[in-house]
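Support request, please re-run this one:
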Amino acid sequence: MRISLSLFPIACLSFAILFVPSYEAIGQNPIQITSNTNVLAGNTANQAVALSLSGTAQTRAVNVFAEFDQLAGVNPGITSADILTGTVFGSVANTGAFDLGTSPNRGLGVSVSTQSGTVATDGLLVTFLVDTTGISDGDFTLNLNPVALGDTEFINASGVDVIPFDFSNNVFTVSTSVVPEPSSFCLLSGIFGLMAVRRRRV
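Re-run finished. Output below.
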């Protein structure tokens, strides 16, 4: 029996598709990015938003670009980014943080790389300071891709390939009626209690 040569390319393509390694097979599951909070106080500057990583990939460098979507012509501004204090890159010898500029939409970019080797994508990535001055309420999406300045990228050990990531829980609610954290309630209760005691003694 003869096999037609015209079917040979199709057979090769089918074989290749069956044996192409998935991200999971080569240890390249998307890096998961989460935020420490998704609620911001309205008309308030210098609010810390910390983004953390979880995953099994190893990275040698990262370019982080971030900005909030606009709503009715306004959006929260990212005024600074700390990519070294307490972060995965700050825990190893690194090149220092490089400022990649700011965008018209009040976003910014920052990058860092290891001096040698890689770091695990498990821990704090960056802490932003966010300014909601002039915004009372609304829901705003924090974008890491795409951003006017560029795309956030995690570079693998080869220094060439980009590791995929997922940042799906990226909608932030701005509200002037943000309830203080329980620790804040305890502090306020203690202060008011001391004031009441002092008034009784007077």
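The chain has two helices and 15 strands. The domain at 19-201 is CATH 2.60.40.680 (Immunoglobulin-like).
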